[in-house]
Amino acid sequence: MSQAELPGDIRDAIGRVHYRQQSDFSVESGYVQTLCAAVQNGNPLYWDGATADDVTGGPTAPLSMLSVWLRPHFWAPGRSASVKPLQLHFDLKERLGYPTAIVTGNELVFHEPVRLGDRLSAGQVLKSVSGLKQTKLGVGRFWVIEMQYRNQREELVGTDTYTCLGYRREPA
Amino acid sequence: MNGNAHAQRLWSAALAGQAMAALRIEVSATTVVLGALATRDYAPMHHDHAYATHTSGTRDIFLNTPHQAALFERYLSDWSGPRGRLGRMRFSMKDSVCPGDTLQIAGHIEQAQRDAQGCGWLQVVLEMSVAGKLMTQCHARLALPLDAADNPWQRRGDDWQP
Predict the structure, then answer these.
(1) Measured between CB atoms, does B46 come within 8 Å of chain A?
(2) CATH superfamily assigned to domain A8-27+65-168
């Protein structure tokens, strides 16, 4: 196989759902307000229960937090293997032999609001892998992964699509 | 823009070409790490200077993706008020925002239209820049109430077309 050719197992992985995950915990206000504090988001939907009741029919999470709810704990008792969020991204980085890989683009689509107490699940779909590209960071490949998030009622709450670049830096 | 005023804007008052006031944020290492941890992102390029510079090849640790999404969401809700409801955000990161940068977010309305369900939408373009250099561009689709009685958050099922 030439370096430019995409391995067959990677070609076969395109279009399939990988790593169906269930959130480790329910959506809760502590994380909501921690993120709001980090970006100084004073939207009363996330700080004032009466406004949340009036506008959204009860407290919700900021829409952009979709990925937060499926990220695994950094450590958990009894867990031996390292679990990474967007594991498929790291699998591709390793399988394609890139020392580093970053996210270069993101598209979020928001459907049903995520409510406090919801328990989300998601699957990772590999949408595409590019040919070799020359970028300013080095030579590598772009790949696109779509996360599709559902609540415990199986309602679609959003999709989160990442465009990623795996690359090898070129000698200075 | 001082942010967080949260007066409610109506779709009928929004015009294509209308500019939104800029928001400026001084980015420190704390800013970067705070956002990474708040979004539960433990990847080393968002908290480990040596990894970021030696392995990632970036100037320093840098803002992660969901942190940037949260900044854009905050910017839009500061402008729209709480009944503004985001349908979609698409952004591309062209360079990294690092400690020591003064980040600016500015935006304008590209288009205003109602969909077949009667929802009032704005197509908005946002730019995150540092010292005049575009770092991340975001295209957002934002629903605003048509009038004082309307509330996009009440739309469900087929009535919500993000």
Answers:
(1) no
(2) Hotdog Thioesterase (3.10.129.10)
Of the candidates A31, A104, A111, the beta carbon closest to that of B160 is on: A111
Annotate B49-109 with DSSP letters as a single string: HHHIIIII--SS----HHHHHHHHHHHHHHHH-TT-EEEEEEEEE-S---TT-EEEEEEEE
Domain that holds residue B65: 11-150
- Tens digit of each residue's pLDDT, chain A (172 residues): 556 789 999 999 999 999 988 998 999 999 999 999 999 999 999 999 999 999 999 999 999 999 999 988 888 899 887 777 788 999 999 999 999 898 888 899 999 999 999 999 999 999 999 999 999 889 999 999 999 999 999 999 999 999 999 999 876 6
Contact list in A for residue B87 (CB cut-off 8 A) is: 109-110
- What Å distances lie between residue A11 and A8, A35, A163, B67, CA to CA? 5, 37, 17, 32
Please state the domain extents for chain A. Answer: 8-27+65-168
CB pair distance less than 8 Å for B67 and A38: yes
Question: ipTM beyond 0.90?
Answer: yes
- Give the separation between CA B77 and CA B72, rounded to whole angstroms: 9
All residues of chain B having their beta carbon less than 8 Å from the beta carbon of residue A102 are: 45, 56
Ramachandran sector of residue B53 (left: φ over 0; alpha: ψ -120 to 50; beta: rest): alpha
Are B42 and B49 in contact by the 8 Å Cβ rule? The answer is no
How many other CB atoms are there within 10 angstroms of residue A156's CB atom?
13
